[in-house]
Batch of 2 targets.
Target 1
Amino acid sequence: MTRYIIRRLLYSIIVLFGVTLLVFFTLRLSGDPVQLLLREGNPTPEDIEALREALRLDRPLYQQYFSFIGNAVTGDFGKSLRYKTPAFNEVMSRMPATITLAVAAYLFALLVAIPTGILSAVRRGGFTDFASRLVSLAGLSIPSFWLGLMLILVFGVKLKWLPVSGRGEGFAGRLEALVLPAVSLGMIYAGTLTRLLRSSMLEVLNTDYIRTARSKGLQERLVLTRHALRNALIPVVTLAGLQIGFLLGGAVVIEVVFSWPGVGRLVVDSINNRDYPVVQAAVTILAVVLIASSLIVDILYSVIDPRIRYS
Amino acid sequence: MASTTPEQALQIGAQPKRQFRYRLAGRFLREPSAVFAGVVLAVLVLAAVAAPLLAPYNPNATDLRARNIPPAWQRAGSSAHWLGTDPVGRDILSRIIYGARVSLSVGLIVTALAAMIGVLVGLLAGYYEGWIDEVVMRLADLFLAFPFILLAITIIAVLGSGLTNLILVLVITGWVQYARLVRGLVYSIKRNQYVEAALVAGAVDRRVILRHILPNTLAPVVVLATLQVAFVLLTESALNFLGLGVNPTIPTWGSMVNEGRLYIYNAWWVITFPGVAIMLAVLSINMLGDWLRDVFDPTLRVV
């Protein structure tokens, strides 16, 4: 177990190293940061040289990379070219909004998927099953940004029930503002999760221990919740690690649709403004969050299900 | 009586194959979702191929006297524009028909390239194991660790937008799935006796890989590829929606939704119809992929 965790940790570090390499070099390839900084005004070649030295961009690229890594470890990604504040702070100030959105979306997905998945498996072949399969297929096939806009159209523009952009004020306001973005983002995962839960539930319901539980006269409700669901949820937990990535990625698009002040929207805005320190900071920090959480999920998973043997 | 001519023998040998083909067609027609998917995809392919013949207007022709005209069945609508016009007076139906070109060609090109690269890499990694395998799998972890769309956005931000770069980004991020799938399959296939037999008979690695292993990986790869077309289509439209896709003068479903966003309060049709097109396309591809999976591998069937 300990060996597994250490191995997994080492892999995570290698992956993280790869991510920083990718981020650093792709962004550096895209143009000279000094030229970008001095876009306005009419810089003389001396100005450019002076700034290049001040930012220490005159050193070889690999040295710059290592100092980027060294600074990144301490949370120093340089200053945002646009806001003139530390890029790290810019990103971290938006992180709560993104995490709130991702968690709410995941909760929504679970809320939809667990009852639908169970019902669909129990009444297999019936109308409920057909309807839930259709809905989960639709969930997989609707582009999230378009679903978001359709929800805005219906609940924001026509019915005027819910706010359509921003995070809202006060607790009730914040909750209201969260509904539409979370539903749009959660719907895609609800589709995947429902399918997954349905098939794993069907598999579990065929096992001997379920037959035993039923034959000893246990109430069907208890058979389903205590015996079947618990085991059927295992693949859902496995998938959770991977889904964090999809959720964070999906959040980028949803945040743009709903003007949600999160990291995703910051990345898109920063790319449009060529504010590279912020892009570097945001992508690196998101990757750290992602790698850390999938590490935790994997370790938890091996604790929950001891049958899993790691080699 | 007992003697059969070689022609007859051939016919007997050919029979199961033909029967399988008929049975496949029969199964296709009995499955309503497969028929639905087939019809929708046929219409989309037709639209993409024959766009100039089918589209009633030039998709980029603006008409400032005909801005934001609602669809024909609405009171203010006009039969000149069935699905209405956008904020600069372009015909939405024509733009959707032309938009099929970008979506379908990007979907197919990306899937073909990503599958070729991924299958090749997967074959090598699975067959030779060792350091190739280790490198490929760590690279795959790297790509999986990264939110796909974020990676795409970062690369597009660097390379700039455009059709070639869009395809490049989707291929760079897309091959991983195939490599992982094929590698896993090769691991088990190469332990079969017929592979050993081929090696003992003196077949070189290349022949074993191409003749004995590759054909056995194809069914799952085809299923994955079909489902990947749907995924590529969704990502392509999301990138075009974010303005990170193809040149803005080319109509795409994603960019149409983006252009209509600001007019959501007075022109719902501008964002609605292109989205319906995306949804129908992705839905049919998913249905087709599910059906193919059931046909190729009944054990995977989500009964």
Target 2
Amino acid sequence: MKVVVDEEKCVAAGQCVAAAMDVFDQREEDGIVVVLDEHPPPELADEVRNAAAVCPALAIRIEE
Amino acid sequence: MTAPAHVLVVGAAASGLTTVEALRRKGYGGAITVLGDEPHPPYDRPPLSKQVLSGTWEPARTELRTGEYLAGLQAEFHLGDPATALDVPTRTVRTQSGRELRADAVVIATGVRARTLPGQELLAGVHVLRTLDDSLALRADLLAATRLVVVGEGVLGCEIAATARTLGLDVTLAGPLAAPMALQVGPLVSEALAALHTERGVRLRMGAGVAGLTGAGGRVTGVRLATGEVLPADVVVVAIGAVPATDWLADSGLELDNGVVCDARCRAAAGIYAVGDVARWHHEHLGRLLRLENRTNATEQAMAVAATLLGEEQAYLPVPYFWTDQYDAKLQVHGFLPVDSQVDVVEGDVTARRFVARYHHGGRVTGVLGWNMPKQTRLRRQEVVDALRSTPAPIP
């Protein structure tokens, strides 16, 4: 699994962090998404898919 | 409970599409049909008042998913064919083109329609902004105009005013409240918003109700306030809120009261559910009906209903979230901000336009608002969650 984010689409809601805090964070200054782990382990796969689903800007893409 | 063999989703925007995606992600292998009233493939609305209106995004960029992805969902999409009636006992939906679709479960996701002023449809140059076509038509008119009046000082009106000002128009924002978004964010933040808009050159006409429109030769010439003053305009946007799109359900027998009235699981009747802007469901932590018009709710409620359809029944208990971007100001709100809250700035500084405010009402935290501090605001969301869960009680 690979996580790809579109910083330009990101609206800094932080929903992804709430859904998968080991994989996503936000920049301190403007809240834009930061990917902590581009290739998350299988045990986090559900969380990561959920994070992509709840993103209100659809800024997270997952390549399985 | 066994999963329904056929799910019909009425509405093809964010909440409708998310329902389909969530069902498939959870492994649902039954038939899915989606009805959409607009001809466009599912698209996102928040950019319509910002990136699309300003022209920084091509319209296609608002598409929620690629054609390839949509095809992979194995759902039958009928776009450009509005639903016209629902027979509740048989869960049969009729459409404008004459289709009759019967399903084991129906998910109502028809959203809202923009509220209008009497007679505005008779005048060219008067717009609402709800759909992609609305946004493109408004943009075309703005590019040829000098003076814009925005009627309505809510979130949408403020965003349109900011975008139009950025495009170089002469902009007036009019509405009955004391300051922009006063109902949504309370006095402290709405006064800061008033200062921001004024500084950027928007003329504010606050505290003035709108009496009507003036026109000549079939085209709008201005907005008449209740005080008698006329604000001259080449283009007018009416952004005075929205009404749930439930006309097609008038004879269905479903309870309609500012939306489709639902129980705590977003169920309106046996096998019939509602999601997104159109749904007014019983929020158990608040102890009352709630209807939310925001982007995050469209997704979360759709995911909750998809789970319910597959037998994972649970009450839908979101902490509401919305954001707005105006100029370089990014406001984010978690929870509820009753207008008579006590508001404390807990981080940053209002005058620096970088702060987090915490709202208290009835002795507990009900919400947090951030201005250009998204991460710091989100970190305080848990305070709202904890307060709502520990002391369930109505919030006005």
